[in-house]
Amino acid sequence: MSIKTPSPSIFRPRKRIDRFVMEENRALVDRINRRNVLRGAVSLGALTMLTGCNPSENATLQTFMRAVSSWNDRAQSIIFRPNHLAPTFSEAQVVKPPRFNAYYEVEDVKPVDPAGWKLELAGLIQDKRPWTAQQIDGLPEQELIVRHICVEGWDYIGQWSGVSLRHFLERIGADLTAKYVAFKCADDYTESIDMATALHPQTILATKYAREPITDPFGFPLRLRTATKLGFKNAKWIMAMEVTNEFPDTFWHKQGFNWFAGI
Amino acid sequence: MTTDCIKSHDRGRKRLHPLPVRIMHWTNAVAMLIMITSGWKIYNDEVIFGWLHFPEAITLGKWAQHGLQWHFFGMWILAINGLIYLIYGFVTGRFREKLFPIRPAEVIATIGDALRFRLNHDDLTHYNAVQKVLYVGIILVGIVVVLSGLAIWKPIQFSELTSLFYDFQTARLIHFLCMSAIVAFLIVHVALAILVPKSLLAMLTGGPVIKQQPPDLMPEPVSVPASE
């Protein structure tokens, strides 16, 4: 084994080790070999697993953490101010195109064919007839220029327009006292929001971004855009909407993310 | 200067660190460690500085959601414990007694002593001027880290608070800088506790009994040279 010239380091002694010391402790030095060091390192690794350096996936702990997360859902619904408006911005601040995020890469987006598309309705709704894209386009349009904040920590200002979800829910005769509004998406994504958020003045079913039809990666033909939730709550490529009192579990919540995800 | 010994008959008399302070200190220590290490996990998902990623081995939570779970669990412990500590500090007069007054001349003199390794640690019950500055400073940082945390947790519901920090990303940066200040404090704090083990012991057992004299009647010398 050849030894390279050591590079200067504050951790390396300036003076070479006295040969006498090496002779004196030969037996000890001989015991240091790669196999033993490796074995030591491996058992050190095993020890960290035993004590649980990253115990987050432990089942008991997950049960506890999910309970804390539900408690945080309740805390957030208490904090929620139904008539408090999110700050809005000018058109000049809008980022074009918006930033993409999903549980897969942008190349894997499967565009929705508008010809066959209809918005299906289910649950506590009087008029459950499905809506075509043209019918939705005929509804009054509301524009939102608000900040999109991702759970990861990034943000951008986007300009979305479409029908107010409150207006739409009233129009279809939804039970506005129900607890949840749930969405099923073309990519098998599921999302649901609380009724208070659904009725917030800055919650829309968006069909346009920066006054143009939303492009495929961002949810064409219909997506949710609410100013009071983290990005992932804003379901894209919506195929069906349900009003319900049964908790509709969601894609990310099943994986341990907080359900309410309010901002 | 002599140190009061810890004797059993001293029980009931006022100690340097009364039991509530010790409980709150160690609760805070655990909460801070949870918040810092899970915060690093959350940070890694969207870094502020391209050159800075925290090694996974020192972060808490296997995936992003687990880091978030820990962070939003730890926040309750940190905030409730911190709030009780602040109320306690003001109501019992501990802050006034231990942390004030801070005289600039004393701060400079203590820094001078520290640089010449002539700091006196005989009397644990009396904080030197630099300790006072650091303790007051870290309490203020603790308040700002919680406020900036609220500002990035609820930038719409608490939009007024977020706008005090300018905007969401600025609040996020300030939250990060507060964490950095806390970690820097922690390094010094732990190093000094190890160098002066009786100060660490005092936070476990309560430490020496406090002389019952009003602080005004005890003019402390600006700096005490170490007995050699």
Task: Tell me about this structure.
- The complex is a heterodimer of chains A (263) and B (228).
- Chain A is 27% helix and 20% strand.
- Chain A is of the alpha+beta class and 263 residues long.
- In chain A, strands 2, 3, 6, 7 and 8 form a 5-stranded antiparallel β-sheet that branches. In chain A, strands 1-9-4-5 form a 4-stranded mixed β-sheet.
- In chain A, a hairpin with a 2-residue loop joins β6 and β7 (212-213).
- Mean pLDDT of chain A is 87; it is low at 1-13 and 47-53.
- In chain B, α5 runs antiparallel to α7 (168-195) and α7 crosses α8 (197-205).
- With 228 residues, chain B is mainly α.
- Chain B has 8 helices and no strands.
- The radius of gyration of chain B is 20 Å and the shape is globular.
- The model of chain B is unreliable at 1-8 and 217-228 (pLDDT under 50).
- Chains A and B meet through α4 of A and α1, α2 and α7 of B.
Q: What is the CATH homologous superfamily assignment of one domain in chain A?
A: Oxidoreductase, molybdopterin-binding domain
Distance between the amino and carboxyl termini of chain B: 13 Å
What is the helix fraction of residues of chain A, given as a range? 25-40%
Oligomer: heterodimer
- Which class best fits the helix and strand makeup of chain B? mainly alpha
Q: Please state the overall shape of chain B, judged from the principal axes of the Cα atoms.
A: globular
Largest sheet of chain B: none
Q: Which fold name fills CATH's third level, the topology of one domain in chain A?
A: Sulfite Oxidase, Chain A, domain 2
- The helical percent of chain B reads 55-70%
Largest sheet of chain A: 5 strands, antiparallel
Specify the number of helices of chain A: 8
Give Rg of chain A in angstroms.
28 Å
* Mean pLDDT reading of chain B: 89
Identify the CATH architecture of one domain in chain A: Alpha-Beta Complex
Low-confidence stretches of chain B: 1-8, 217-228
